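Hello again,

I reread your note about wanting to compare the complex against the isolated chains. To keep things tidy I'm splitting this into two emails, and this first one only covers the full assembly. Below are the input lines as submitted, including protein chains and any nucleic acid or small-molecule components. They are followed by the predicted structure of everything together. The single-chain runs will come separately.
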Amino acid sequence: MVEGSVSSPLLFTRDVVLARGRQAIARLPDLDIHAGDTIAIVGASGSGKTTALMALSGVRAPRQGDIAVDSTYLWRLPDRERDRFRGRRIGLIFQSFHLIDSLGVKANLLLAARCAGVRPDPKRLAHLLEKLGLGGLEQRRVDRLSHGQAQRVAVARALFNKPAVVLADEPTSALDDDATASLLSLLKEAALSEGAALVIATHDRRVLSGVSRVIEMGRPS
Amino acid sequence: MNFVGLAAAYLRRRWGQACLSVLVGALGIAAIATTLLGFEALPEAARQAWGGVDLVVGPKGSALDLVLCCALHVSDPRGLVSTKAAMATVQGPMVRAASPIALGDNIGGWRIVGATPAILDIYRAAFADGQAWTDKLQAVLGARAAQALHLKVGDSFVGVHGLVAGGEAHAHFPYRVVGILKPTGSVVDQLVLTDIETVRYIHEEQAKIEIAEHGSTDEALVANLPDAATAIVASFRMPAAAAFLPRQIDATETLSAASPSLEIARLVSYARPLTTAVMALGLLLVAVAGIGAAIGLMATMNTRTRDLALLRALGAGPIHLALVAFAEAAIIAVAALAVGAVFTTGLLAVLRTLLAESTGLLLQPHPSLDQIAGILAGTLLVAILAALFPALRAAHAEVEELLRA
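Full-complex prediction:
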């Protein structure tokens, strides 16, 4: 356990003010997010959703306030430690998946473990791939997968290192209604079964009915 | 999957460009290694060829010619000396053995050398079969000559005038093989030895026949110098002889002395600008390969911005990202080294065959640990330099680029 431990919530924020350059752009409501919670951070374009995600994932420091993931204050960790912590305890899902095209399905997942300095568990790998309907596709290069399959690989990669929190950035913006419902269902089920909290940054109002809590980005006071 | 595996996967995606870098690098490495190894092995091959010959005494003229003709047997003689006068210069306690040699005939391109049995001592040759000549028209064959000519003790053959195949046959003077030598690794393996009196006898008798038939002969010179020899070859008993004897001999009016080791060293020094030029070309090729790899890596790093940012998002540190670039360059370097080693082996084999066919010298390159370490270190240095800027570029990848995409 590192300096400044707190208890219980998997994601905890207090008095977080986000900034872009020198300018404060948004205040993040105080959060206490537990395992199985699904949260949507919503707001118009430029409202600071992505900046919030950067702060929550340990990529860019907030102007002020505390963020703790799984009892560890992110911004009190040294840079390298924070990188490693992100790899181990925060699963990231991007709008366009960002899989590494040169590699196969299995290699993409194993690379996630390697980047985080985690010893990959072959049983977990097989279990996740099977659970997400990717059984038999382990060696297939990801640029030869269908959109739906690639989406599931991205989810599997985010979950592979057993994260405490899964952060998804605009995961449904390019999807039709059916695909949006299907992806939301997949994300929620996967996060729930892995005991993780799910946070979705989106401007897509279709997401709101499927989450347990919605947070509107507000201007800093 | 690790970062080296990822680098290999990236290379597979741009295999054409990677293969070109490997090929150019391999050619450069091969040019350097072949020049380095071949050039270093050449004096050693010559040293092995001249065997125990420490000194050649011949007519006034080029010392290098004397060595090439009479110690290495790769060029033609330039004149004759009086055996008596020349042998007198190498008498004394400093000389272990000395023999006159007379060139002029061959069999199937293999030189027939008239000498005294002392020549066997000079080359430290031992008999595989038979014995030394005891009479005229008897021959002792070096191991390679006997094998190539398919001759054994008791067989007969006819010599041909001149030092290359295709001359006029001395059909009236057949030789009988009385001995076959064991391989020595020296030039004597390629010679057909006979009593020097045999050579004189054949040419005197040939002259008589030609005069009777045509009224003239090109053997007249031999007939006019009854104890003619092409040169004297000698082996020293003590190294100090090298300091005194050549000077004494060069001071005479008709004779000059040549030391094989000095002349070959001089010959090698003449060739050094050429080898330096080939080495420079090799270095240039390696540099081009390095620059090509660097440009390729830099270009791919720019197209891989998102991949690199993703690795950062997944927890990889800047060093890991730099490692991907270095691993790609290292894979190219290792492949270039492997292909370069194959090229070098092939080039040296071709060089060895060509040299053996044209001169009889046996090139046996043995890379030293220093040379191997030098080539490895040089190649890896180029790889590191090639990967340096791409690695710095990779190390500065930021996750923000991914989230902003």
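For quick reference: The CA atoms of residues 74 and 359 of chain B lie 5 Å apart.

B.
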